[in-house]
């Protein structure tokens, strides 16, 4: 009986597997065309200072303005692009487009997500160097977000690639901390400039003591190692209070800003600079 049910499960599995395969293949074909037809767009989500809520950075988030099928988010199409290798040209498009968009956003850091396949690609650091040189984007204002899966597969190669990238002056942050297996030892091994606490950990920390303890200890270690800490996915004031008290220096979440087109960031940055200019003028009048 166990053999039979095993076989049944196997047929069932294969059918859904084939269906999944078919759906993935359709997306994959369409991704090729989308890149050629210019259907990708970038949205930018501001990160604010935990201290005064000013915008200190923006994260570039890929959007697919799809004309031939249902609109799907990056959580769906990025894994397909990763499996097919298309993430390499797509990722380079993201880098080039985002640094061009962000050129005029003085003093604001640009964060770009990087997939494991990109980090493993020996061409990647070379292309990154070319993009920085051709655009004149200050490397100090660029930050690449990697996840633990980028690093665990081949830590030696990853470490070497990260060193080359850091050599340009670009900073590295560990994204989605608290979702996978990345341990505190991991932070020490790779020496990231910044830690990003995943939204799930932020939400959980507001709900149970165990998660709060985990968040607090991760932040303490990160700070002791000289890393900046960003809380992701902050949607409520109590969550913002919690992560601020816990020692996060940057906050990202819908409580402050959602992702928006580059033009809107242009306007926000302009406003912020004008406010700062006024504050400065006031200060010097008083002096
Ligand atoms: P991520 O890098 O962790 O980006 C943060 C995600 O959280 C974004 O989802 C953002 O819109 C969402 N988010 C921000 N604040 C809040 C909040 O307060 N509440 C909630 N519920 N969500 C919030 P998005 O844009 O759908 O991106 C999903 C993931 O897709 C990203 O997660 C990243 O892993 C990946 N991704 C996006 N763009 C790129 C890209 O250009 N390259 C690569 N390799 N991956 C990308
Ligand atoms: Mg990210
Ligand atoms: Mg994240
Ligand atoms: Mg995430």
From TrEMBL:
The keyword Transmembrane applies. Residues 24-273 form the EAL domain. Keywords: Membrane, Transmembrane, Transmembrane helix. It comes from the Bacteria. The keyword Cell membrane does not apply. This is Uncharacterized protein.
């Amino acid at each position: 009986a166990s053999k039979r049910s095993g076989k049944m499960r196997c047929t069932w599995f294969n059918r859904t597997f084939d269906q999944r395969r078919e759906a993935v293949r359709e997306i994959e074909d369409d991704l090729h065309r989308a890149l050629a037809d210019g259907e990708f767009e970038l949205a930018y989500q501001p990160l604010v200072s935990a201290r005064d809520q000013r915008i200190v950075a923006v994260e570039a988030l890929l959007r697919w303005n799809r004309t031939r099928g249902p609109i799907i988010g990056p959580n769906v199409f990025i894994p397909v692009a990763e499996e097919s290798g298309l993430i390499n040209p797509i990722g380079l498009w993201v880098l080039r487009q985002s640094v061009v968009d962000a050129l005029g956003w003085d003093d604001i850091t640009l964060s770009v997500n990087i997939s494991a396949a990109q980090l493993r690609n020996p061409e990647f650091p070379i292309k990154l160097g070319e993009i920085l040189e051709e655009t004149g984007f200050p490397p100090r204002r660029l930050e690449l977000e990697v996840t633990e899966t980028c690093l665990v597969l081949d830590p030696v190669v990853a470490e070497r690639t990260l060193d080359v990238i850091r050599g340009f002056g670009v900073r590295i942050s560990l994204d989605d901390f608290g979702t996978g297996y990345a341990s505190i030892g991991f932070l020490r091994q790779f020496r990231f400039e910044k830690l990003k606490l995943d939204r799930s950990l932020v939400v959980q920390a507001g709900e149970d003591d165990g998660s709060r303890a985990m968040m607090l200890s991760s932040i303490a270690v990160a700070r002791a190692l000289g890393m900046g800490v960003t809380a992701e996915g902050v949607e409520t004031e109590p969550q913002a209070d919690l992560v601020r008290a816990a020692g996060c220096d940057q906050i990202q979440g819908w409580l402050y800003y959602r992702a928006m087109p580059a033009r809107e960031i242009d306007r926000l940055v302009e406003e912020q600079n004008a406010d700062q200019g006024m504050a400065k003028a006031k200060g010097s009048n008083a002096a």
